[in-house]
Amino acid sequence: MKRELPLVITALVGLLMIVEYFFEIPGASTAAKEMQDWAIIVAAFALAVAAINLALTHARNISQKRPGWIHSVLLIVSLIITTISGIFLGMDSGAFSFIFNNIITPCGAAFYAMACFHLFSAAYRAFRAQTPQAAALLITGVLVMLGRAPIADVISPHLPSIANWLMQVPNLAGMRAVTISAAVGMIGVSLRILVGIDRTHLGIGQE
Amino acid sequence: MDVLSKLGDIDNRILYIILILVLLIPMVRPIGIPISIGPWTRTSFAVLSSLKSGDKVIFDFGYNVDGAPDVEPIAQAVMADLFKRDIKIICVCYNAQGVMIAEKLLRPYEEQGKVYGVDFCNLGYVAGEETALAAYARDLKKTFPLDVRGNHTATLPILEGVTGAPDVEAWVFFTDGGAEPWVRQVGPLNVPVIGGLITVSAPNAEPFVQSGQLAGLLIGLRGAAEYEILTNNPGAAVAAMDAQSLGHLLLILFIVFGNIAFFVKRSKGPIGSKEVSK
Amino acid sequence: MSTDIGIWTAALFTIAAFSYLFSENEMYKAAEHIYVGAAAGYTIVLGFGNVVNKGWRPLVEEGHFYVLVPVIMGLLLFAPYVGTQFGWLRRIPIAFIVGVGAGIAIRSAVIENFVKQIAATVMPLNSINNILIVLGVLTVLSYFFFTFRSTPSLKVSSELGKWLIMITFGASFGNAAMGRISLLIGRIDFMFREWIHLIRL
Predict the structure, then answer these.
(1) Partner of B42 at 20 to 30 A CA spacing, among A16, B79, C34, C172?
(2) Domain boundaries, chain B
(3) Half-sphere exposure of C176 (CA within 13 A, CB side)
(4) Total beta-carbon pairs less than 8 A apart between chain A and chain C
(5) DSSP-derived secondary structure for C101-118
(6) What confidence score (pLDDT) does residue B276 get?
(7) In the predicted model, is pLDDT for residue B230 greater than 90?
(8) B275 confidence band (pLDDT: 50, 70, 90)
(9) Domain residue limits at A34
(10) How confident is the model at residue A205 (pLDDT cuts 50, 70, 90)?
(11) What is the pLDDT of residue B277?
């Protein structure tokens, strides 16, 4: 029951979603739309579970005074203030907007932008054309970067055309093959999940 | 050789300062490098410029604040163009952070006189990513019974006659991920789908443009700058292009220099052999 | 320089985040933890709003009692917190979400990612570009045939495919680099235009 019930649910619901898409069966479309709606409601609860797990982990850090527990205090305080301001004052309140615009936005953007610094450092020290194929990769990358920068027209009118050609012919061919292969993989994995061969998402393990 | 070795061992912090200066200087003192228009932006512009006053377009905000510097200028440029031509915009959010991002972008237009519920609306976010997209692409009002301001969506004038994607003139999504969820869920619904993508995702989306599953692409900050030029509304994206050009040149210079130093060192023999023999 | 407290807050958090580039320090760790806490709080607020709009309101105000099923399933996600003996109940809502997601993924991927992409590859071979695209797709696909017996023609085809993949990844690398530069330009624009007023539009 503990193992079989979840597998049956996955199979039935998945089958309904597939059958509704390809066949005209009375009632299937309505049932499928309702299942999608239910999945949205369950996913809404799942949003909170992730955040609550995070809070509990850091609360444990604080209670056990693990190294760095002061930072965990900052995390919990910031989580509580954001949650209270959003739920009780509203998402359009000054407090919630302040937190989103002046803490979440700059931090998120800055952490992601740091990758640029690491990229330049790696370009200087690590991007080496040690094999012919690595050279092909680097040369293509350089041509695409050069061709897509506005300065390309100043250097040579052919550069933008070369970059566009690289994107629209060889890149297209390679990416299409990758897309088709990934689709086959996605179909395979989804089928394995639906028929119960792959159960890792349930914490049961594979057959 | 010694110079090459010393330059090869330069501290990372000096590289970072060089990078910041190379990007900052052309933003403070613009050079004015002309910007040509790429094929993807031309195609997207052709689709969007065919829309008429009163047409309805869905804006789907699928990016987080992390990727906003590359994607948000596209949303700003397209929104400015569509509002100028009195095209109505229905906002939905594929990502949770899209709710606040959409509100931030819409607020100035409301202050200028655009009416919420008539000229635009923000339906908000529902959890579930592609599952949610599959639901709201087909039935907006059922998936979003209330909008972000607490209004019943069934009563909004802008949603009159609109159930899902087939009832609007275009679906424009903005994402810092891939285009595939929209290709899979919105593409089959007989509506032109245009993607505003982060530059990183552009190569992956190319097959869908060629196959016609996407009506157009607007790629990153460069795409936003091109759209601003096409709509005669140059703004922040155009202003950033000089820095983008010099940034690209600096990166290419680092790659070329690094490889020259590597091959020169390699041609001198195994690393450290001279030190060992001493 | 700006006098807005919000802009100053954002600028200080940006500096704290970038300070990691010079060395890991307490200011960076503090900013990181405050950001993670705020982002998690934002997620809880959105989740709460969704539960109220899609679950509570239809159930209590509109009397749609069938909504009780997904609400109970959602609550089962918290079962492990009640006691470890109830941990297995969490599998039910996970199984449901995964089933819906897998079903939606298969039905769409078959047509949009597979059939239509193959159909788009079937094109008239009346130009060099078209020939290159068709050959390119076939050779790269042949590179992924890891379980096929290696024949001379497959070896040649997969070798060509490997070269084409390198070109594809090169284009991806070029675009990734461009994207990262744009992200940094965005932060520099904020710091030196909105905060320090050095850049004027």
Answers:
(1) C172
(2) 2-30+240-277, 39-234
(3) 17
(4) 394
(5) HHHHHHHHIIIIIIIHHH
(6) 41
(7) yes
(8) very low
(9) 1-89
(10) low
(11) 40
Taking domain B39-234, whether its CATH number is 3.30.160 is answered by no
- Reported as a single tens digit per residue, the pLDDT across A14-33 is 999 999 988 988 888 889 98
Residues of chain A with Cβ-Cβ distance to C54 below 8 Å are 37, 40-41, 44
Q: State the complex-level ipTM.
A: 0.89
Residue A142, in any domain of the structure: no
A49 interface with C at CB cutoff 8 Å: yes
How large a percentage of chain A has pLDDT more than 90?
Answer: 61
pLDDT tens for A76-93 read: 999 999 999 999 999 989
- Quickly state the pLDDT bin for B221 (edges 50, 70, 90): very high
Residue A30 domain-assigned (yes or no): yes
Cβ contact C34–A75 (<8 Å): yes
Chain A neighbors of C91, CB-CB under 8 A: 2, 5-6, 202-204
Q: Which of residues 163-192 of B touch C (CB under 8 A)?
A: 180, 183-185, 187-188
Give the Cα separation of A171 and C164 in Å (integer). 8
Q: Does C40 touch chain A (CB under 8 A)?
A: yes
In the block, which residue shows the tokens 């790629």? B219
The helix or strand, by DSSP H or E, that contains position B219, with its residue range, turns out to be strand B216-219
Residues of A whose CB is below 8 A from B12: 117, 121
Q: Cβ of C58 under 8 Å from any chain A Cβ?
A: no
On the 0-12 / 13-18 / 19+ scale of CB atoms within 10 A, C60 is: exposed
Residue A34 counted as domain residue: yes
pLDDT surpasses 50 at B132: yes
End-to-end CA gap in chain A: 17
Length of chain B: 278
Residue A36 domain-assigned (yes or no): yes
